[in-house]
């Protein structure tokens, strides 16, 4: 059985630790913070703990999940790939395209699996929306938008675009299946010099598909909302709501005798599988 380690047991890394433990695959935890190592030792007795990845090599592990701060992703992943280890790197894989490409080339050269942790691609609601698109239930895809807003958690090493927007970019790529032809992004810097706190990104895809992403950690309330609009219908999913419903709207604009006529059909909830995205990933 493959042996996995998690590098970084912080805010998100601890979820990887718990999930791999539940799957019976957790073989080690790498964490630089001594206090956090003590916490992990109490929660997962018998699981080896290491202060750095270099020490963990002695355990003969097969694969690593890198859940350290984003600025260190590329360096940690590069070191592990050099050792011939399979690696899942939390998003973003790196803070530059150049570093990301170097990691991909190294993984291919070493014969290792390299994966980016775009966990929302494994969310049942996102999978269901993709299914509806493939079935033609929404008609021709026209427009998508995502609002990913909250008050905090403010990062100091990466800006809001790097921290929040990769989720939505990965979802849009999954839905469209093509790269955008143009991307325009603007934002504001308010809390720390050089670190954007809010951005608006507009993406133009082939076949006149347009999308926008609004992200901010300087916002009075939490909102994680995704809306997808097609020629036959529309869907919305708000992951921050209590019910987390996926709603289908039989709404749109029809042209009758050369005039635009609003189509106001029913709104219904669509059932999704009850699966945990991180477990599926």
Could you describe the 3D structure shown?
The structure is a single chain. By secondary structure, this protein is α/β, with parallel strands linked by helices. The chain is 29% helix and 35% strand. It has 8 helices and 14 strands. The protein has helices at residues 13-22, 34-43, 53-56, 73-82, 97-110, 124-135, 160-176, 277-280, and strands spanning 4-7, 26-30, 49-50, 63-66, 86-90, 114-117, 141-151, 182-188, 198-205, 209-216, 218-230, 234-238, 246-256, 259-270. The strands form 2 sheets. Strands 8-9-10-7-11-12-13-14 form an 8-stranded mixed sheet, covered by helices on one side. α2 links the parallel β2 (26-30) and β3 (49-50). The longest helix has 17 residues, at 160-176. The radius of gyration is 21 Å and the shape is elongated. The model has no long low-confidence stretch (mean pLDDT 95).
